[in-house]
Each structure stands twice: as C-alpha cells, then as structure tokens.
C-alpha cells in the first residue's frame, strides 16, 4: 500500500519532536505567550471595542497569533526537512519501500496537529481576554487555521527545497514569511494601501489566510469565504507541484 | 542460477565529472562481493545506482531480475541497504527505529528484538540515536538493513571510523549474513577488509573497474613477487640460494639475506634448499604481496594517496 508506515512514522515524528527541548517550547509556547502578552496589553480594547480599532481589536489579536502559529509550524517544517536532508535522514528513509510522499505527508500531519494543539492552548490560556458574551466559532476557526497552515506549508516545502543548509533554513524562512504579515491586511486594511502594495498584497497567500481567519472569527459563514479557501488551495497546488520539481533529497 | 546483480556498461556523470565510467560486473548468489578503491573512485555512486537511488545515464542494471530505477519499491522490499554517512532522527529510540523499519516491509518474519540481541543492542533499545557510539550506530544500521530478511544486503563503507575491535565484530556479522544464504555487496577502501571478507572484489579507480577476481587470484596475477628474509652466519648460503630456479635477486647485508622471486614455489624452494644444505638460520620471514600491492601496481599509487 502506498501509505504503508505513515501512521507509525507520524507517531514517531511527534515523539521525536516532543523530545526536542526547544522544539516543543519554541513552536507551541512562544505563540501562546505572545497571545497572552498582547491580550493583556490590549485587554481593555478587546472587551470594549471602539469603532476606530474595530477590525484589529475584534479579530486582530487572535488572527495575528493564529498566523504566527501557522508560520511557526511552517518554519519548524522547513528546519526539520533541511536538517533531515543535511544529515542524510531523508536519504536513509528513501532507501526503504517508503514513498517520498508518505514521508512528507507524515510531516504535514505532525505540523497540522501541532498547529491545532497550539491554537487550543492559546484559546485556553487566553480565555479571560475574550469578552464573556462574544460568540467565537472555535471549530470553524480551527478548521480555517488548519487550511491556512496547510497552504502555507507548501511555501515551506519550496523554501526547504532551495535552502542549502539547515543553518540558514529558519532565518531565510522567517525573512520570507514574517514580512508577509505586514501586507496581509491585518494591520492596515488592504483598501487603504497604495496601489503598488495592494497589488503585492493580492498575490500574497497570507492575505487570503488573514481574510479567512478574520471573517470566520467575526462569525461569517464559510460560503462568504470560498474565494479565500480556493486561493489557498490553488497556492497549495502550485507550490507543491513546484517543490516536487525542485525538491532535493540530499 | 542467474547472477543476483547484473551491471553492464553503466555510466554516471555529475556535470562534467564522470563518476562511473562503463562499469560492468556480476554478483552471484551467496557471495560477498566487494567494490574496492580509494575515496572518490565512484564506488558509492555505483552502489546507489544498483539500489535504485540514482539513475545511471547509460547502461543497464538488473537486481533479482528487477530494474532498480523503475521497480524501486518492489526492489526495496527485497533488499537491505546500509548507506555511508547516514543518520537517523537524533532523538529516535533504537527500538522505535527497528519497529518503524519492520512496519515498512511486506515480510514480517524477522523478529526485531532478536535482531537487536544478535547485534548486541538489547541494552541500548531505549537509547536515543544521538547517544549511541559510532559502532552502535553502525550495528543499528546493519539491523535496519536486515529487518526485512533481504535477499541482497548492500553495505557502503560499513566499518569506516570504527576501532579495530568493532571492525572485527562487524566482519563476523557480515560472514554470518552470507552463511544464511544471502548475497552481500559491499564497498570499502580498506584493503585488509576486502582481503579478509570478500569472496570476490572489483577494483575501481576514477569510475572505471580495472579488474575483478578472488583477492588471492588478483594478488597472484598482478603481484607474483615473493620475498624471503632470513638471518644466517653461513657464508656460502647466498650462493646456494642464487641457484634456485626463478630467483630474481639475492642481497646480503651482514648476516641478513633477502631473496626475491616471482615463482609461487619460492618459499618452498628456499626451505628445501635450507634443509638440503643444512644451513642454520636464526630468523626466517616471508613477505607476501597483498591486495594493497595489487592496487599500487594497477593504479601507480597507494590507495591512501
């Protein structure tokens, strides 16, 4: 069977990741701490939204942190793939009946589980910053974040394919991914951007991820965001096809 | 019985570097076949083409009747591979690696725990890969290569970086694999390893295979020279040795006489001569050429250069 070994490999990758002293803390802990710090800082505004800062205050912090969680997962994937390649682990796994897609699928599953776990932790830890009466669609928001992460992971594959050594993987990934947040419409609505930046924002995947997450957090239905989901799916297809071309196993 | 591995006219280039140049050879069932040569000779590339990890530019390869590149998954199910300089996840436990590998193959008859026991890794089964010594890692990789009870085992430079004791233990293991009827294909740049372990060797240099045969036949063919060094006070001895047929040179320095010749019977002839003439010797040594000398002769340089 094509996916033979997938579950065992996934389970082992989860265990190996949790044994990494910085891995679990850096990837799960940091976004949660950022959420707590931001929540505390903006606590008043969260509970009493004013029209001026409404877009940021109502969905801004949760969405920002959700995006940080996604990026953190992607960077973790980039690092792991490049370490595995540099150390010959990918090559060793390849010299078995394991299919390449099984190896990558296992890593995607691990990262998606990690994303979901971080989000749940964040929501549990930050419960008090969310206004008591507010209705937050937890399940939909989690699904939206998983779709966003899954899509951005494909950018991670391309970065992991091109970056030569593990040492540069994380910084290069960060340099590519973090600036996208600035243009994603999270801080400045896209309509207010100069035309040139707006054009850039339109092709950046984070823009669609942010719009999807914001909408879902604010109670939109899925039907209102099928365009965003389609854009993210398209990104996944393009990037996966591209990385299949440029991916190196050693 | 058709050969287990058939390689003919294989060529592989990386850019302008020719890594493997028209390599052809066959490996038979239940033999230990060694590809020997210095680092960079193209041994690993050749092996990885046979394992289906690389596609040769030209030439054909068949392993167990399969095309290693097009039928790579079918092939991987029936072979065991140990790669040079491979690593596993730093924090994977020994038993987890064995368990994972066991789940990847169709055959399930090999008992992972028994394999660990055979390889002396039982007390390390809960250790992380990163905390194993070089020899332990190598034994784990051998365990992983044997987990599917493979018909052919590929071992790439398996004792490099190990101390002599660990090396000998691994040689015994490899002999054990052959005794169970498996075919072993290995590469090494250690001539001693090739001489002691391999039934047949192919000497490779600059991507070319220079000669293939049993180690002792390669030595006889390319380096027939034999040397006897002895110590005697008998002043007439040197003259008697010169009369032995096939002697090339007899040199005397003080009481030490060095006799050189290319005849296979040189040592016997010298001993016969000693007993016939009742020459009293206080020391007697022979120097026989080794695979190392064959390599030097065939390539014009030492394998360590």
Question: Would you write up a description of this structure?
Answer:
The complex is a heterodimer of chains A (about 250) and B (about 300). By secondary structure, chain A is mainly α. Chain A has eleven helices and no strands. Chain A has helices at about 5-20, 20-40, 45, 55-85, 90-95, 100-125, 140-160, 165-180, 195-205, 205-215, 225-245. Chain A is globular, with a radius of gyration of 18 Å. Chain B is α/β, with parallel strands linked by helices and about 300 residues long. Chain B folds into two domains: about 5-215, 3-Layer(aba) Sandwich (Rossmann fold); about 225-290, Alpha-Beta Plaits. Chain B has eleven helices and 13 strands. Chain B has helices at about 45-50, 70-80, 95-105, 110-120, 135-145, 165-180, 190-195, 215-220, 235-240, 265-275, 290-300; strands spanning about 5-15, 15-25, 30-35, 60-65, 80, 150-155, 185-190, 200-205, 210-215, 225-230, 245-255, 255-260, 280-285. In chain B, strand 6, helix 6 and strand 7 (about 185-190) form a beta-alpha-beta unit. In chain B, helix 8 crosses helix 11. The two termini of chain B are about 40 Å apart. Chains A and B meet through helix 1 and helix 5 of A and helix 2 and helix 3 of B.
| Alpha-beta content class of chain B | alpha/beta
CATH T-level fold name of the largest domain in chain B? Rossmann fold
Number of helical runs of chain A? 11
Radius of gyration of chain A: 18 Å
Report low-confidence residues of chain A grouped into runs of 5 or more: 46-57
What letter string, H or E per element, gives the SSE order of chain A?
HHHHHHHHHHH
Element order, helices and strands of chain B?
EEEHEHEHHHEHEHEEHEHEEHEH
Q: For the residues shown, what is the average pLDDT of chain A?
A: 83
Fraction in helix of chain B: 25-40%
> DSSP strand (E) fraction of chain A?
under 5%
Tell me how many strands of chain A there are: 0
- Domain module tally of chain B: 2
How would you describe the shape of chain A? globular
The CATH homology group name of the largest domain in chain B: P-loop containing nucleotide triphosphate hydrolases
Secondary-structure arrangement, i.e. CATH architecture of the largest domain in chain B: 3-Layer(aba) Sandwich
The shape of chain B, in one word, is elongated
Radius of gyration of CA atoms of chain B, rounded to a whole number = 24 Å
Task: Figure out the total of helices of chain B.
Answer: 11
Chain pair with largest interface: A-B, 22 and 24 residues
How many discrete domains of chain A? 1
Q: For the terminal residues of chain B, how far apart are their CA atoms?
A: 40 Å
